[in-house]
Structures are given as structure tokens and as C-alpha cells.
UniProtKB/TrEMBL annotation:
GO terms for molecular function: translation initiation factor activity. Seems to be required for maximal rate of protein biosynthesis. Enhances ribosome dissociation into subunits and stabilizes the binding of the initiator Met-tRNA(I) to 40 S ribosomal subunits. This is Translation initiation factor 1A. Pfam families: eIF-1a (PF01176). The gene is eif1A. NCBIfam families: eIF-1A, PRK04012.1-2, PRK04012.1-3, PRK04012.1-5. Residues 8-82 form the S1-like domain. Keywords: Initiation factor, Protein biosynthesis.
Length: 96
């Protein structure tokens, strides 16, 4: 990180061991979205109840998902990054 970032860099929530970055590709309805994960897998992700009313998730949003242990093609959304945070993750090379 360079010194010329103007002090705008935030400490962002990074993935735990069982979480991966993902980009929302399609809204499926019924609190489900299609995501493309950083590990190259397309998954159906569930928006948990505590996020449904407070956080709006749209296509092209960058999110953190936790893939299910017993069904790898499904996941739960754990966190959504706003546009500035997603840009910072791209600048720092964490996501494409």
C-alpha cells in the first residue's frame, strides 16, 4: 500500500478459512442469487434473513460467501462490500 492513498483506505473484512469472494451474477428471487466465486465455481447463494431487510444485494455486487460443506454448489452470503470497498479490493489485488 502506497502513502498516496489519501487516507481513504479502510480495513476491510477479509474471508475466513471457509469463505470466498464472489460476484453476484443473477438475481433468482426467493432470497437467492447466483454468484461466481473466486475459486471459479458458480453457486446458488442464499441471502440470510438478517440481511434481507437491511442490506440490498444487486447484480455485480462483491460479496463474501461460505460454501456449504455438504453441497458445494450452494453457499450462504456472509457479507456485502459497497462499491468503494470492492474497488479497494480490486486495487489491492484480492479480486479481479
Amino acid at each position: 500500500m502506497s502513502d498516496n492513498d489519501g487516507g481513504r483506505r479502510k480495513n476491510l473484512r477479509m474471508p475466513d478459512d471457509d469463505e470466498v469472494f464472489a460476484t453476484v451474477t443473477n438475481m433468482l428471487g426467493a432470497n437467492r442469487v447466483k454468484v461466481r466465486c473466486a475459486d471459479g465455481t458458480e453457486r446458488t447463494a442464499r441471502i440470510p434473513g438478517k440481511m434481507q431487510k437491511r442490506i440490498w444485494i444487486r447484480e455485480d455486487d462483491v460479496v463474501l460467501v461460505e460454501p456449504w460443506d455438504w453441497q458445494d454448489e450452494k453457499a450462504d452470503i456472509k457479507w456485502r462490500y459497497d462499491k468503494q470497498e470492492a474497488d479497494q479490493l480490486r486495487d489491492e489485488g484480492h479480486i479481479q
